[in-house]
Amino acid sequence: MSSEQSIVIRAASVRDLKAIWEIEEASYAAPWPKETFFMDIAFNGDAKYFVALLDKHIVGFIGGWFTDGKLHIVNVATDPASRGLGVATQLVLFVLDLARDLKIDSAFLEVRRSNTGAQKLYESLGFSVTGLKPMYYPDNMEDGLVMTKELGRAHPGD
Question: Can you list the domains of the chain with their CATH numbers?
């Protein structure tokens, strides 16, 4: 990424669904159905989705459910052509900062046992493996690792 290019993150809307789903489909062997994204973005009051833009094009997205004092990161994906630019890192850091501002205590996510690249990313951001969900992924019955990060307070004295 050149110094002229910067990633902009903004809230996702239903107008972004086509780009989100195209990235989802390019990123995962068993992508979520389009309807799942629509229902989350349009109707789930606990869900917040964000898109990352590079040169005004959507190059990644993240979705999270903010409930019961926890952030559950449910989906993160980057367009294959934009991988290696730090898009996923910036998206995760963005939602973690938002969670802290909302006084959320912890964040967690599930990741495939075989997805060591994503595990390394999450570990670099302070997540650690805290659990196992056997046969979590229905497409191939792969185990899911639960990774958690304690967030603490956004600002001392809050």
Answer: 8-150 (3.40.630.30)
